[in-house]
Every structure is written in C-alpha cells, then in structure tokens.
Write a structure and sequence with these properties.
This protein is mostly beta strands and 242 residues long. The chain is 10% helix and 40% strand.
C-alpha cells in the first residue's frame, strides 16, 4: 500500500533552486499557475475530503525530495529547455505545493503530442503526460491547505488539479501562461502547437485512483463534456523546472 498523489493541469514541479543548469533528478516543490485556472484538491480514503478550491499553499509533511522517474523526465516538458538561456524560475506570489518524499511518474497521457518552437528550433514530445503521480514513501502523511490539516495513510489518494476556467481560444494560449512564473517575458518562452496523435507510449502507472480523478475533475473542458477536446489539449500538461 502507498499514498498516491495525483497532479493535473498547469502545475510546474521544481527542485530546491530557481537557477538554470541544476540537477533534474528530484523535485521538492510545485507552482500553481493561477491565471485563468483554479486549483482544487480532493481526497479519497479513510478521511475523504470533497473537492474544494485551494486558496493557500498545499503542504505535505513530512516534506522531502521526490525522485524523478524516466517516464516523468521524458514526458513532462522541461521549461528550461523551452526558454532562452537568460530565463530563470520566478515564483512571485503564486501558490505552491511542498512535496513529500517519494517517486514521480506518469499516470496517463494526452491523446496527442506537442511541438514547442523557440526561435525556429523545435522540441517535439510525441507523448505528453496528462496526469502525473507521486508515490509517497511514507505510509502516513499530513496535508495542510486552507488552514486545515488532514491525515493520510494506507492507500489514500489525493488529487490536485489546476483546472482550466475556459477553453483556449487559440493553441498555446494556456501554455504561454508559464511566462508568469518566469523572469523575462512570454517572448522568451517557446510557442506551443498540437502534435500528432500519440503512438504507443511507454506504459504509465495509473495507481489506485485515476478514475476518481476523472470523476471529480473541475476542468471546464470536462464540465462542458468536451471530452475529446480535453484529451487533446496537451498544452495543459504539468511541467518541470529545470
């Protein structure tokens, strides 16, 4: 048994520094990109919590470093690679998540890949993570949000979604919001365009509660039953720094 923590939407996971050219093997925090999105949290397990909007930081304790699996490293976009070399991470007042110790991997993929264009230099991801999962090392955790503490144990699940409040009018409208957590301007960030239909991607690890995540999702594309649209909008993926 293990506590499974799921992430979906515009959430950027990072290590202990904001600089470029730092290690990519672990993550300890994450940023919720708020513009046009609303972060929600749901808990399924021994002490369930219905889906609620998050207004403050989400803190798991004990905190720790989450190891990056090869799947996570390959299928979650590296923002350092998609920006000019003068750009660094700049969190500002964006709410963050303090992660527990464990391992990060991919729980599900979008149906289509992504192409990122930075000064006519293209980075193509054939398979893009739609949902990521942190498999916690500790069998007992506390997660704190909105001023309350909640105990986790056994095979409890937590779903953290930074849900879209509108469908992107143009491809890339949501991905470029990453510019709000970076130094420089949005012009320093690669342009997104949809890729081809994903091939047979590496097998994901869905964990215990992927269907629960689908059921409680507040993403407007899902609420409007634009399921196919939601499944193809790979710009609304998690990301990582560096």
């Amino acid at each position: 048994m293990a506590i499974h923590i799921y992430f979906r939407g515009l959430i950027c996971l990072y290590g202990q520094t904001f600089a470029r050219a730092t290690q990519r093997k672990t993550k300890s925090n994450a940023l919720l990109i708020r513009e046009g999105h609303a972060p929600h949290i749901s808990i399924k397990g021994s002490a369930p919590v219905p889906t609620v909007v998050v207004s403050r930081d989400i803190i798991f304790s004990p905190s720790g470093k989450a190891k990056v699996s090869p799947l996570f490293d390959q299928h979650v976009p590296h923002i350092e690679t998609l920006t000019h070399n003068t750009v660094v991470l700049k969190p500002g007042t964006t709410p963050k998540i303090v992660l527990p110790e464990g391992e990060l991997t991919v729980a599900s993929y979008f149906k289509y890949g992504a192409i990122f264009d930075l000064d006519d230099d293209n980075t193509t991801l054939e398979c893009v993570a739609e949902t990521t999962i942190l498999i916690a090392k500790n069998s007992v955790l506390t997660v704190s949000f909105n001023g309350d503490d909640h105990q986790l144990s056994g095979d409890d699940c937590v779903f953290i979604e930074n849900a879209s409040q509108s469908d992107p009018k143009h491809p890339g409208d949501h991905f470029k919001l990453h510019g709000n957590i970076l130094s420089g301007t949005q012009a320093d960030l690669a342009l997104y365009s949809p890729g081809q239909k994903a091939p047979n991607c590496d097998s994901p690890f869905p964990g215990n509660c992927l269907s629960f995540c689908d059921e409680v999702s507040r993403d407007v594309k899902n609420k409007a039953r634009l399921v196919e649209r939601a499944a193809t909008t790979s710009e609304c993926t998690n990301s990582q720094w560096p």
